[in-house]
Amino acid sequence: MTCDLKSLIRTVPDFPVPGVLFRDVTTLISHPTGFAAAIDHLATRAQASGATLIAGMEARGFIFGAAAAARAQLGFLPVRKPGKLPVPTLGVDYDLEYGTDRLEIDPTAIAPGQRVAIVDDLIATGGTALAAAQLLREAGAVVTHAFFVIDLPDLAGAQRLRNAGLVVDALMDFPGH
């Protein structure tokens, strides 16, 4: 299964900058059987983790996270970019390779002690997932697992998450970056 799903990921050279091999999940998402298999994988792992809520980061984390939450019959919490939520938010700023960014959530969407799993399309350096875990924990969630479709192990993001106390699982990995 993994080998077949891996073939559904399009590699785009030199995007967004020269030398980068961009792993494009839109070809997986548009393949009904492949997308369903990826969602089944994520949903099964999230259920097994004991999570009652899946948090997905904007934007592709919404696609995979919401679908996995629905399949697993769990709730879904969108982790948004700034200014997108119509209620008072809890936010965290974090470093990117070339600057900073911010994530926000509605803190009333999480019950104290609620078990939340993070789901996203890809783990590279881990900055966004680490920020999401920090934000969710500040809101009172218990965050122990993060699930991804793709891991780029050469960028060591999964190891950064493990060092922060998260169990990390990815459906497939691609060497290089």
UniProtKB/TrEMBL annotation:
Known pathway: Purine metabolism; AMP biosynthesis via salvage pathway; AMP from adenine: step 1/1
Molecular function per GO: adenine phosphoribosyltransferase activity
Domain Phosphoribosyltransferase: from-to ranges: 35-148
Primary location recorded for the protein, binned into one broad class: cytoplasm
Catalytic activity: AMP + diphosphate = 5-phospho-alpha-D-ribose 1-diphosphate + adenine
Class of enzymatic activity (EC top level): transferase
Keywords for this protein: Cytoplasm, Glycosyltransferase, Purine salvage, Transferase
Subcellular location per the Swiss-Prot or TrEMBL entry: Cytoplasm
InterPro entries: Ade_phspho_trans, PRTase-like, PRTase_dom, UPRTase/APRTase
EC number assigned by the record: 2.4.2.7
Family note: Belongs to the purine/pyrimidine phosphoribosyltransferase family.
Task of the protein: Catalyzes a salvage reaction resulting in the formation of AMP, that is energically less costly than de novo synthesis.
Subunit annotation: Homodimer.
HAMAP family, sorted: Aden_phosphoribosyltr (MF_00004)
Identification of the protein by name: Adenine phosphoribosyltransferase
Organism encoding this protein: Novosphingobium capsulatum
Name of the encoding gene: apt
